[in-house]
Amino acid sequence: MTVYVDLVFLTNLAVDGVVLMTTAKVRRINPSRRRLFAAASLGAMYAALMFWAHIPYFYSFGAKVFVSAVMVLLSFGYGGPLQYIRNFAAFYVVSFVTLGGVIGLSFLLRSANSPWGAMTFTEDGGLVLEWQMQLGLFVVTFLMSIWLFRGASETSRKRQQLDQLVWETEVRIDDESWTFKALLDTGNRLYDPLTRTPVMIMEAALWRERLPVGWSERLKEEPPDKLISELDVNASEPYTWGNRLRLIPYRAVNGSSRLMLAVKPDYVLLYRDGDGHPPLQVNRVLIGLDGGTLSSEGTYRAIVHPDMAQADPVSSVPSQPA
């Protein structure tokens, strides 16, 4: 078999460089290109040396870990023991994920007449898997592995950031309470123009049983002032929450002025899971009802006004909702 050492060097240089750049992205580090190139060159030289010279123990486990440690040090610096260990661990996680992706995708794309075609059993019962890949296929599967890993890690990071903004929320009206998760949105600046009361947004479906029949669905298409006018005409008896209903004007994304149906609760409690702090009690707030779904993934069902996060904590409230 003919081996082109220069091709081995260049392939490993590219692979190590991409792995190091992905590691930097995961760790949110911005190393210089010179440092990344130096570390990738070290890894490529290490891979190419096996075809130039036979050195005992040069490719042992300890030697591989040592070379990897030097590569991480060259790329990202030291920065303290904890920082260095995290960078080192992230480097190996990226390496394992991408290499596993390359092998998995190559076997997925490979066709064979029999699943036993790529397997060989040794005399002592060992199993040998034959794995051959052309350079073009290797490049494609490697880049696909990097792309998949980057996408998964970015999604995980965004989910963690979102979880930090999600509050456990409890709404109290008379003797009833409703518990759901709400997103703290710093861009929500909706107020009642007359009283300057902050307005949080909630899915109307949460109050389907407490609103008049069909309101939670009709709010998707019909203006709320029409619903209230029908309530006054058709109701045989006063609606229980009639004195709590409000109409809040707001400006839609397209610039048009609209009205939002809102309800005045007794108060709203905001909990943060596991932070050990008492909940915040918000007495001055309106709850605007949205006829749609606020989160396609169901992560939250309401949007908290930023002013609500400035409320004072309560010293004694009922037990935290489950």
UniProtKB/TrEMBL annotation:
GO biological process: asexual sporulation; proteolysis
Swiss-Prot/TrEMBL keywords: Membrane, Transmembrane, Transmembrane helix
Record flagged with keyword Disulfide bond: no
Membrane spanning residue stretches: 36-55, 61-78, 90-111, 131-149
Pfam families xrefs: Peptidase_U4 (PF03419)
Annotated active site: 185
Record bears the keyword Membrane: yes
Gene Ontology molecular function terms on file: aspartic-type endopeptidase activity
Record protein name field: Stage II sporulation protein GA (Sporulation sigma-E factor processing peptidase)
Species assigned in the record: Cohnella phaseoli
